[in-house]
Amino acid sequence: MAGAIRNQFNLVGNTVNNGTTAGTEGGGAPGGGSTGADSATVQAAIAKDAKDWTLDEQKAVAEDIAAKGEASPAYAKAKAAMDAGTKFSMKLTNGKTLEYRIVGINHDDLADGSGKAGLTFEATNTVLDAQRMNATGTNVGGWDKSELRSRLNSGDLWSLLPAEIQSKVKSVKKMTDNKGGGTAGTPSVTTDKIFLLSTTEVYGDMQSDGVQYEFYKSKGVTTSNYSGASSRWHHWTRSVTPSASTGFRFVVGNGDWDYSNATGVPYVFPAFSF
Q: Of 63, 166, 173, 60, nearest to 113 (Cα)?
């Protein structure tokens, strides 16, 4: 663990830094068509490069994979896009461009109990800027009670997402240690449309906040082999630091992990599912 950078964010308090946008790949504009099994939208997606999938095509592919698993005609192309780290993009309401990639296939449980979300995506750039987890230096209540979770699911950060994505994302169940306060707790479920990955979902061998996503597993990411999680920017996870009453963990730019006071401001890489 990169102890030298621990708590470096504490000094900047509530400062919010402007993110920078990397080069855009693919198109995020919504397309048309039905999302039924073997629909014209799925067939259109199969016929083109995955990086060019529209939001409607991403959702149609996800629903087809959720219904059919590996038998979906779109499964192989979606998995290849995930393995390659193919980036998609969407324009936010503030004019900035959010880039994101597939990190999970049939991974997250839908909140309504109807099955799995076919695809889960995670942002890869910093256009949601650097944000605090809480207004005060506490992790009591964990992700469940955090200010950042509220802002992502119904507040100012949610409002940055275009209507097309707000109407398409599906509520999923996320397992997280939501106790905080300096002692480990039993993971409990929250229902989220927009969420942050946990340290378990990135590294696989930390705590029990869910299950490692397929993208990171395919890269062999663990707490001792973390280059596959590198991204240039430090960014929050939703996992508390169990042994401390003030901290949440974040992914370091080189892929390692560390923790920051809840008032610190790593960047925010939102995740969502179709």
A: 173
CB 257 within 8 A of CB 251: yes
Condensed to tens digits (0 to 9), the pLDDT of residues 52-66 reads 999 999 999 999 999
In a domain, 160, yes or no: yes
Q: Looking at the domain assignment, is residue 16 inside a domain? A: yes
Tell whether 55 is covered by a domain: no
Look at residue 242 and tell me if it is in a domain: yes
Long-range CB contacts (within 8 A, 24+) of 2-7: 2/252, 2/254, 2/256, 2/257, 2/258, 3/258, 5/234, 5/252, 5/258, 6/258, 6/259, 6/260, 7/247, 7/259, 7/260, 7/261, 7/264
Please give the tally of structural domains in the chain: 1
Cα–Cα nearest to 241, from 168, 103, 140: 140
- Structural domain containing residue 170: 3-22+127-273
Chain segment 228-267, per-residue pLDDT in tens: 999 999 999 999 999 999 999 999 999 999 999 999 999 9
